[in-house]
């Protein structure tokens, strides 16, 4: 299964670690600091190009040389789609009215 994040971006659901509402993120000092550091270290990929409504934290695991070790690549997507809509698309929430 895949999750459409907006624009032309789709990621595998198995790579999704968290979907965070931007308003909730900005209320928490720890989360705000985490996002600031992530932005400084170029982990945030802004696909919103407008008002950011949610962040999707993902991690892709790739095999290293000769399948001896794993390489983990983290990326945070800033999306203009609400966290509720992303949860629905991912089928994480059933029967929301």
UniProtKB/TrEMBL annotation:
Pfam families per record: RemA-like (PF04025)
Database matches in InterPro entries: RemA-like
NCBIfam families from the UniProt entry: MtxRegRemB (NF046065)
Identification of the protein by name: DUF370 domain-containing protein
């Amino acid at each position: 299964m895949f999750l459409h994040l907006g624009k032309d971006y789709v990621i595998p659901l198995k790579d999704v670690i968290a979907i965070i509402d931007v308003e909730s993120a900005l209320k928490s000092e720890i989360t705000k600091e985490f996002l600031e550091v992530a932005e400084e270290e170029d982990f945030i990929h802004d696909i919103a190009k407008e008002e950011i409504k949610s962040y999707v934290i993902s991690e892709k695991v790739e095999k290293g040389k000769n399948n001896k070790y794993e390489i983990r690549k983290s990326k945070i997507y800033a999306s203009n789609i609400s966290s509720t809509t992303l949860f629905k698309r991912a089928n994480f929430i059933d029967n929301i009215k």
